[in-house]
Design brief:
- By secondary structure, the chain is of the alpha/beta class.
- It has a domain at 22-32 and 57-137: 3-Layer(aba) Sandwich (RbsD-like fold).
- Helices cover 31% and strands 18% of the residues.
- The longest helix has 14 residues, at 84-97.
- It is globular, with a radius of gyration of 14 Å.
């Protein structure tokens, strides 16, 4: 264990977050996401929900301030609907740690998969919310 780092952050996830460069993306996926099929590095976080994982990651992870949307979720397939409580719970964690972050963008399902295919890693969580996936784009970590 390390001081100041949530026990939800596994050694593998901590290493991955540290290895990522600015502009790299990481997907926090729901339990139904085809992470292994898409090809990038997959980290298991079974049993964890995405809001709690965001709360653990965001104190360590600078979101990209130079892009229009450093956070992206999957848009609903035509005929489906998004549960606004899902995005609201994610946004609450973002606002706690990075309140100036722009609104979460939404992209079409297959565009999301394509973007996930190019991500640095996918974290497969135990999140069961429909359309619960979110992409985080890493920014430049400020030097203090």
């Amino acid at each position: 264990m390390l001081k100041g780092i949530s026990p939800l952050i596994t050694p593998e996830l901590l290493k991955t977050l540290d290895e990522m460069g600015h502009g790299d993306e990481i997907v926090l996926s729901d339990a139904h996401f085809p992470g292994h099929t898409l090809g990038p590095q997959v980290i298991r976080a079974d049993g964890l929900r995405i809001p709690e994982l965001l709360d653990a990651i965001l104190p360590l992870f600078e979101l990209d301030a130079y892009v229009e949307a450093p956070l992206v979720m999957m848009a609903a397939v035509p005929g489906d609907r998004l549960d606004p409580k899902v995005e609201k719970s994610y946004r609450a964690m973002v606002d706690r740690h990075a309140p100036k972050t722009p609104a979460i963008a939404h992209i079409e399902r297959f565009a999301f998969y394509e973007r996930a295919r190019k991500a640095y890693a996918v974290v497969l969580t135990g999140e069961t919310a429909k359309y619960g996936n979110i992409i985080l784009k890493k920014g430049v970590t400020p030097v203090k």
